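Form P-L/3: holo structure prediction, ligand zinc ion.
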Amino acid sequence: MALFCLKKWTFVQINPMAIIAPSLLAANFLELGNACTMLNESEAEWFHLDVMDGSFVPNISYGLPIIEQIKKTTTKVLDVHLMIVAPEKYIVDFKKAGADILTVHYEACPHLHSTLQLIKAQGMKAGVALNPHTPVSFLKDIIKDIDVVCIMSVNPGFGGQKFIEHTYEKVIELKQMITDANANTLIEIDGGVTADNASKLVKAGADVLVAGTTVFKAADPKAMIVTLKNC
Ligand code: DX5
Ligand code: ZN
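OUTPUT (holo model):
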């Protein structure tokens, strides 16, 4: 699989197109196996898995047992987005469940640098998600320690929300920060991604597009993934 060997993590620009990370939050949970099969047959490189605790965000989604089962269905990258308080308590558990990338929220981590090191010590890539109100400049001192910055383009907690337009400015600023630092960090966009805004996001500097509703509510989800990828 063309997984971590995509783009900057091998320092080779193998594939200039965006990585597509469909969010299973928008799938029919009674048909989760079919959703995984569909994604395995698609051009999506990552599975985006949203874990919510009802405390950091006002919603509860799914957790470790579901991720363990999903891991058995795929060899694609499991991109786990933790929307939970004290995520450092569960790093080993998510590694065991099969996470390849573990993303924590800036707003949930008073000792973010330490948390990133703990994630990497488990052999996972380390991601940091930023809520819409959190400036990208807050990551300047640790940008080289971050494998993926997930810019939230909606307020976290729910799928199907409207894209926040200010996101483009954040992507441009973050891209400059990454370039200036000579870092290998990927920029991921999460929330309200559609076939209409995908191209502008990639032009601004996005490497990874998360898409829940746009993929799973499409008449042909696999074709939609191709559309997003070729934007
Ligand atoms: C929101 C989640 C997103 C969500 C995206 O809190 O982090 O990953 O599933 O859903 P859409 O693409 O429908 O906005
Ligand atoms: Zn997410």
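COMMENT: Residues 23, 48, 50, 81, 190, 210 surround zinc ion (ligand 2) (CB under 6 Å).
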